[in-house]
Design a protein that fits this description.
Chain lengths: 114, 114
């Protein structure tokens, strides 16, 4: 158990809908990362937050947005969902924002868009 | 262009055998290299981290090497076990001032058969 929690575990929704994925980092970690992993694909970095501020942006679509709240939990919002958005979404956390710090991954949220 | 390439894409070995996974990178400026293990459907877990000055680092039956001159790293697994079946991902950190990036490889899928 990494100490990172993600909810929900599974999510099934229809095209065009909007969903929110939630992540609570490990106690003491200030940085949160979001990743997308499609079937049999590598991890795609989406976005990083550090202490409430956006720190780095990866291949995140304009339909997707995220934020980190004062209690350090983070939410990833996915809107106008398409079939191709079906994937595992991982959240990870680290103590500091430095690139290369060990990231601790949550169990993921499996999103299925039908 | 910053890239991380891993080989082989997939590998099948018998329990008890050794294997070596390769990671070649063209990332500059190099900060560190980390190997992660990802069990199917779960988040990655860090195995080792290597900085520029380190050549070899071990973590139990896992031994990582780094050749910063040729920009190659390898992960050697000794006396493989069924639980080693997973995807092994090489991640290289590039850092220059405030510009920081993580470049993820696509991973090597290892299957250990009895």
């Amino acid at each position: 158990d990494s100490g990172v929690t993600q909810t929900p575990k599974h999510l099934i929704t229809a095209t065009g809908q909007r969903v929110t994925l939630r992540c609570s980092p490990r106690s003491g970690d200030l940085s949160v990362y979001w990743y997308q992993q499609s079937l049999d694909q590598g991890l795609q970095f989406l976005i990083q937050y550090y202490n409430g501020e956006e720190r780095a942006k990866g291949n995140i679509l304009e339909r997707f947005s995220a934020q980190q709240f004062p209690d350090l939990h983070s939410e990833l919002n996915l809107s106008s969902l398409e079939l191709g958005d079906s994937a595992l979404y991982f959240c990870a956390s680290s103590v500091a924002p430095r690139t290369g710090d060990e990231q601790y991954f949550g169990p993921g949220t499996r999103l299925t868009v039908t | 262009k910053n890239q991380v390439e891993q080989s082989p894409q997939s590998l099948i070995i018998l329990e008890g055998k050794n294997c070596t996974l390769q990671c070649n990178y063209t990332v500059s400026p190099f900060s560190n290299l980390r190997w992660y293990k990802q069990d199917t459907g779960r988040g990655p877990v860090s195995l080792t981290i290597m900085t520029f000055s380190e050549n070899t680092k071990s973590n139990g039956r896992y031994t990582a090497t780094l050749d910063a001159d040729t920009k190659q790293s390898s992960l050697h697994i000794t006396a493989s076990q069924l639980s080693d079946s997973a995807s092994y991902i090489c991640v290289v950190s590039a850092s220059a001032g405030n510009n920081r990036k993580l470049i993820w490889g696509l991973g090597t899928s290892l299957a250990v058969n009895p």
